[in-house]
C-alpha cells in the first residue's frame, strides 16, 4: 500500500515573501500548488464555479469572450465584506477539490499548497501542517509597492487589514519562516524540509 502524501500549507500576508520561499522548496523537488493562480484559472474554466459566479454576480461577471470580467468583479466585490465572503464561499471549495485531485497525482514525500488565505478560511483543517512566512509590516508594504506599481499604500494596507495579523498566524502555524532583514531563508527552509521528510503520517 502506498504511503499517503503529506499536505503542507504555506501562507503569509501580502509582501511576506511566501512565493519566494515556495520557490526554494520547489528547487528541493517539492511539488507546489498555487491556490491563487488556480483560483483564477478555475473561475474562468470550471463549469460548476462559472455557473455559481453567474448566479451570484450576474452576466457582467464574464466578458462576451467567456473570460472572467476581473475589473467588474474587483469593483463589485472588493469594498463589500458580504460579497467578499460570498465569492470566497464559492472559490475556496472549488480550489480545495482541485488541490485534492492534483495531490493524488504527486509522488513526493509531501506537497505544498501555497495560499494567501489558509487560517482565514479554515483551510488548515484539511492540511497536515502549515508554514507561515512572516516579515515586519513596514518591509511588507515597501515590497508590495515596489512590486505592484499600480497599487497605492492605502490599497496595500486595506489588503493587510483583511488578513489575519502575523502574530496570530505564527501562533497557529506548525512552522514559521522569518523573512525580515538579516534573516536567511534557505537554512530555515532546509530545517523544515528535513523535519517534513521524516514525519510519519
TrEMBL record:
Highest taxon, organism lineage: Bacteria
Pathway(s) annotated for this protein in UniProt: Cofactor biosynthesis; coenzyme A biosynthesis; CoA from (R)-pantothenate: step 5/5
Keywords: ATP-binding, Coenzyme A biosynthesis, Cytoplasm, Kinase, Nucleotide-binding, Transferase
TM regions (residue ranges): none
Binding-site residues, ATP: 15-20
A Pfam family assignment: CoaE
GO molecular function, one term: dephospho-CoA kinase activity
Catalytic reaction list: 3'-dephospho-CoA + ATP = ADP + CoA + H(+)
Localization per record: Cytoplasm
CDD domains: DPCK
Predominant subcellular localization, coarse grouping: cytoplasm
InterPro entries: Depp_CoAkinase (IPR001977), P-loop_NTPase (IPR027417)
E.C. designation(s): 2.7.1.24
Function: Catalyzes the phosphorylation of the 3'-hydroxyl group of dephosphocoenzyme A to form coenzyme A.
Similarity comment: family membership: Belongs to the CoaE family.
NCBIfam families hit by this protein: dephospho-CoA kinase (TIGR00152)
Name of the protein described by the UniProt record: Dephospho-CoA kinase
Organism: Algoriphagus namhaensis
Gene (name only): coaE
Amino acid at each position: 500500500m502506498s504511503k499517503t502524501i503529506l499536505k503542507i500549507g504555506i501562507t503569509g500576508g501580502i509582501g511576506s515573501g511566501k512565493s519566494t520561499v515556495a520557490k526554494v522548496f520547489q528547487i528541493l523537488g517539492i511539488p507546489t500548488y498555487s491556490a491563487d493562480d488556480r483560483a483564477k484559472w478555475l473561475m474562468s474554466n470550471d463549469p460548476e464555479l462559472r455557473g455559481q459566479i453567474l448566479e451570484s454576480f450576474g452576466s457582467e461577471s464574464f466578458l462576451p469572450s467567456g473570460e472572467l470580467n476581473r475589473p467588474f468583479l474587483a469593483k463589485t466585490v472588493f469594498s463589500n465584506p458580504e460579497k467578499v465572503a460570498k465569492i470566497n464561499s464559492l472559490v475556496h471549495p472549488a480550489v480545495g477539490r482541485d488541490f485534492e485531485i492534483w495531490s493524488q497525482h504527486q509522488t513526493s514525500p509531501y506537497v505544498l499548497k501555497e495560499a494567501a488565505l489558509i487560517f482565514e478560511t479554515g483551510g488548515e483543517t484539511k492540511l497536515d501542517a502549515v508554514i507561515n512566512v512572516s516579515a515586519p509590516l513596514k518591509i511588507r508594504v515597501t515590497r508590495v509597492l515596489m512590486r505592484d506599481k499600480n497599487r497605492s499604500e492605502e490599497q496595500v494596507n486595506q489588503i493587510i487589514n483583511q488578513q489575519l495579523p502575523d502574530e496570530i498566524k505564527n501562533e497557529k502555524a506548525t512552522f514559521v519562516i522569518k523573512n525580515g532583514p538579516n534573516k536567511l531563508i534557505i537554512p530555515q527552509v532546509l530545517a523544515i524540509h528535513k523535519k517534513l521528510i521524516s514525519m510519519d503520517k
